[in-house]
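Reviewers of the previous submission asked for a worked example of the structure-prediction workflow described in the proposal, so we include one complete record here. The input consisted solely of the amino acid sequence. No template or homolog information was supplied to the procedure at any stage.
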Amino acid sequence: MSKQTLSFQAEVKQILHLVTHSLYSNKEIFLRELVSNASDACDKLRFEALNHAELYGDAPNLEVRVAFDAEAKTITITDNGIGLSEFEAVANLGTIAKSGTREFMARLEGDQKKDANLIGQFGVGFYSGFIVADRITVESRRAGLKPEEGVRWVSEGAGEFEVETITRPERGTSVILHLREGEDEFLASWKLRSIIGKYSDHISLPILMRKEEWDSEAGKQKLTDEWAPVNKASALWTRAKNDITPEQYEEFYKQISYDTEAPLAYTHNRVEGRSEYTQLLYVPAKAPFDLWNRDKRGGVKLYVKRVFIMDDAEALMPVYLRFVKGVIDSADLPLNVSRELLQESRDVKAIREGSTKRVLSMLEGLADSEDAAEREKYAKFWKDFGVVLKEGIGEDHANQERLAKLLRFASTHADEGVSLKDYLGRMKDGQEAIYYITADTLAAARSSPQLEIFRKKGIEVLLLADRVDEWMLAHLYEFDGKPLQSVAKGAVDLGKLQDEDEKKQAEQAAEAFKPVLEKLKEALKDRAKDVRVTTRLVDSPACLVVEEGDMSGHLARLLKQAGQEAPKGMPILEVNAEHALVKRLDGSAHFDDLAHILFDQALLAEGGQVEDPAAYVRRVNALLAA
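From that input alone, the workflow returned the following structure tokens.
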């Protein structure tokens, strides 16, 4: 028999300190976490036993048992699942490999420091036992090992833990909580049953507790030696929808997602046909901290014939729906399915397509609802998840039209929430395109000089400032037969919205200004592809545009920020021949300086950076002093 004392990893020490000093709201969460871990251990054994049936030994029926001892002040959670070897006990209970630990601690140290619900979200649920216990003993033996290869792990939640080899006849794990003073409320059968019913009723394994009977001599209930299930022991998604309450749906979501809030929406369906499967899918009410990490595996759990297979089956949901949580249970996939097989399976492709359409239907139901409260839910969803949903425009061509209808924008007519359908309904008679502008921020987009002619004529322009927008627009060419047109690309052609007098005036101004244009082209030949008189400016002297098909200045800046090389190209400078500053060019002794200042100011107005700030300042100072 060996016994050794080891130190916790630094992150574990920090978590234990927070658990014992901060998590004093909703203490009952500890039982949810430990029962969930026990259930996971049984799932892991079931999965390993697919290829190694001998691991079951003489105990093929998997279960979780919850017991308490009022005199010893202990609660014990026991499972006959996969169990732990001595190495695994040290590795799994003394260190944390899962990313997100820092975020967990940051949240606890912030406004949510009292919220015990957070503990399961980052894979540290075992340590929730220290919310109510001042010592935890874990006794375990891994399936397949000999009885004398069991392990005992003991800690008081400080800086160290003890590990020793023991003899344990049965496989699996027992977690024994030695309750601290003042936690006696959990030493009651009714209390433990109510917590299990609230949080763990959906678990498909039986959760057993000892039955009670009346002791007439003592005048109170006493525990018997007979064990009975205290949960329904059937997977929630396998039940009929009519038998499940909204509260049960919500609690199941919180259990699988470790979220503290109820979901925004959910859908539960049994699909039959070419591929048979059940889906229970949820849209969260708020974005998780790692939503922007496209490499993070999705949150959908895969079961095959109610046997747990994997936690994060990313092949079942497209990347742009990575925020969706839930369960998919297939009747067709093989039990030994691997990640590689998931990528190639036709059944998986059918499940993925069906589940994607179901999620989009759920979102459409919110967005198009006649109920204002439901539409408000969609507005909340868009605020948190809209940027991610935009990724689908380029990734999911089959559903591009449906996704386009779900898009929401700010515009020159509204601060937010404008759909493409709304835009079409407000288009001017004779308007042939949906106009938009991209910029680094909404403020920059709203104040862009390129909008001046559109404002003058009351034409709505969509304002796009998300980093994904340029990429999305490379795939979204039109909506309902109307092309999407950037106001910063090509010459402004308002077609029927521009009367003949305006066109004639523009042509006359361009002709009269021709000598100055030629001098401007020469002065800016290294910076501008062309210089021309504009029809898009009203109050500003100049602006920069690019040719149709060329990369916008905004996209070039985004690529540069990402460390990528942007194709080299020069913009076109458009000048307002009626502006006083532009009129000063004709005959000016400072022509070249004025030309460069016009260019630099146009660059700054669109959010760009002046290549030589010192030269710009020098030119401005020279003109001010003249």
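Residues 237-377 form a domain with the Ribosomal Protein S5; domain 2 fold (CATH 3.30.230.80). We consider this example representative of the routine output the project will generate in years two and three.
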